[in-house]
Amino acid sequence: KEAKMDDARLDVMVFRNVGHLDIVRYVATAMIGAHTGLSDVQYFQTPALSVRSEQDVPVEVDGEVAGRLPVTFSIAPHKLRVVVPGPE
Fold it and tell me: Fewer beta carbons under 10 A from the terminal one: N or C of the chain?
């Protein structure tokens, strides 16, 4: 609901439980936009986020392993160039 493409902030969701039924509940509530109201879901906005772990954890980006923790995510304004065809 609050995510905007141009507000220079990352929208972060932390799902605290990872059981099969929890995941089903998260997906079901996300489909109707009610997931941010769950007591075991934390939502916040930030310009940057660092993630680390005491364990060796792979980092996936678009379903592909892109590295390992620690990792820092941040907003990079105007870094994506989109080319579209002109009017005919």
Answer: C
